[in-house]
Design goal:
Layout (H helix, E strand, L loop, with lengths): L8 E2 L2 E2 H7 L2 H10 L5 H12 L6 H6 L9 H15 L10 H27 L12 H10 L10 H13 L7 H10 L5 H13 L6 H15 L5 H8 L18 H17 L4 H14 L2 H5 L7 H11 L6 H22 L27
Antiparallel strand pairs: 1-2
Helix pairs in contact: 1-8, 2-17, 5-6, 5-10, 6-7, 6-17, 8-13, 8-17, 9-10, 9-17, 10-17, 11-14, 11-16, 13-16
The structure holds carboxymethyl coenzyme *A.
């Protein structure tokens, strides 16, 4: 990443090229193994993912304990961490490179199955089992939007959009969730536990949870302020609220992912024939903020989360699922960073603190304390 110039590359490849020309599974391979796959390498990789998409039937029972309306991210965190119970071999991350690779493939393969189950169970619909005839992304869309009662016809516009969005989220240096995955993994905790912790970090509204917040903020403007963005901008300047989808710790010029997503958003909505007034509100909000000294002085620009929710909504995802989609995209980045750390046998992460309290005090018994 170059935050000043707005550059993002995965292993040397520009994000613009990857988003335009590659598939999500190619990017997964690139992040995991260091180079873009040849056609035969990709076929082997995709084949091995296909072999591990099913989850243990008892996992379906876990859904019975979640109360109605429980947040998909809490469910995802639980389900991913619980994979360690179903694959006890994964408990030792140092067993062998082959065993580690199998643990990784299992996780990558099962994540779409679990994410789709969360959406289906949230609606009270029967879950759909993965189909080997579909590629990774189409399979996810089938399990999410297909129905037991009828044939599923993949829509290439939706599959392309989903590939693009997942690629744009795939890796992003030492952000909050990735650093969490690394620090948990540095204790030699197993992969599933480390990724579960990363999902927890991603959930927060300042990180991945911002995509849900953006959509709710746009709906708030539509429903309460008659589509007028002025009040929300003024409240953000008064520190009464955050303008979600704005600002970034590293990008201080523009977020290259946001640029791609904004363009994609226009195209996808047009192709799907969706007219969403939220898109107009988002554009007005962006315009208002980009011309306001408060945002200019603080170098606050739209980030990856600003337009992604409008696309997810147009594709048919319920708002609470948005951060799960971010997690699905970020998974290969988390896993690759965890894998790199284990291969380098890095030391345990151990930040130190600056303590500002009393240095030493005599102990006082409870009866004498005032
Ligand atoms: N709305 C209003 N004011 C803001 C915003 C915002 N979205 N972001 C930062 N500011 C202000 C902040 O109050 C501070 O003002 P002042 O100088 O008067 O104290 C100044 O801008 C600098 O902010 P900061 O908090 O020091 O910036 P940061 O680098 O620590 O935080 C951020 C980065 C992304 C956490 C923050 O911009 C934010 O909370 N944005 C909204 C949430 C969001 O969209 N998150 C998604 C980030 S990108 C995808 C991801 O990583 O998941």
């Amino acid at each position: 990443m170059d935050g000043e110039k707005g550059i993002l590359r995965y292993r040397g490849y520009n994000i613009e090229d990857l988003a335009e020309k590659s598939s999500f599974t190619e990017v997964m391979y690139l992040l995991l193994y260091g180079s873009l796959p040849t056609a035969s390498q990709l076929a082997v990789f995709e084949g091995s993912l296909t072999q591990h998409t099913l989850v243990h039937e008892n996992i379906v029972k876990v859904f019975e304990v979640f109360p109605a309306g429980s947040h998909p991210m809490g469910q995802l965190m639980t389900l991913i961490a619980s994979l360690s119970s179903f694959y006890p071999d994964s408990l030792n991350p140092n067993k062998s490179p082959e065993a580690t690779n199998l643990t990784i493939i299992r996780l990558l393969a099962k994540m779409p199955t679990l994410a789709a189950m969360i959406q289906k169970k949230g609606k009270g619909h029967p879950v759909l089992y993965p189909q080997n005839k579909y590629d990774y992304v189409t399979n996810f869309l089938y399990m999410t939007f297909g129905n037991v009662t009828e044939e599923f016809t993949p829509d290439p516009v939706i599959t392309d959009a989903m590939n693009k969005l997942l690629i744009l989220h795939a890796d992003h240096e030492q952000n909050c969730s990735t650093s969490t995955v690394r620090i948990v993994g540095s204790s030699h905790a197993n992969l599933y536990a480390s990724i579960g912790a990363g999902i927890a970090a991603l959930w927060g509204p300042r990180h991945g949870g911002a995509n849900q917040e953006v959509l709710e903020m746009l709906e708030y403007i539509r429903d309460n302020d008659n589509g007028n963005v002025k009040k929300v901008v003024a409240e953000a300047k008064d520190k009464k609220r955050l303008l979600f989808g704005f600002g970034h710790r590293v990008y201080k010029n523009f977020d290259p992912r946001a640029k791609i997503i904004k363009k994609a958003c226009d195209n996808i909505l047009k192709k799907l024939g969706v007219h969403d007034p939220l898109l107009e509100i988002a554009k007005e909000l962006e315009e208002a903020a980009l011309n306001d000294p408060y945002f200019i002085e603080r170098k606050l620009y739209p980030n990856v989360d600003f337009y992604s929710g409008i696309i997810y909504k147009a594709l048919g995802f319920p708002t609470p699922m948005f951060t799960v989609l971010f997690a699905l995209g970020r998974l290969p980045g988390w896993v690759s960073q965890w894998k790199e750390m284990r291969e380098r046998n890095e030391d345990i992460g151990r930040p130190r603190q600056i303590y500002t309290g009393e240095i030493q005090r005599p102990f006082v018994g409870i009866k004498e304390r005032k």
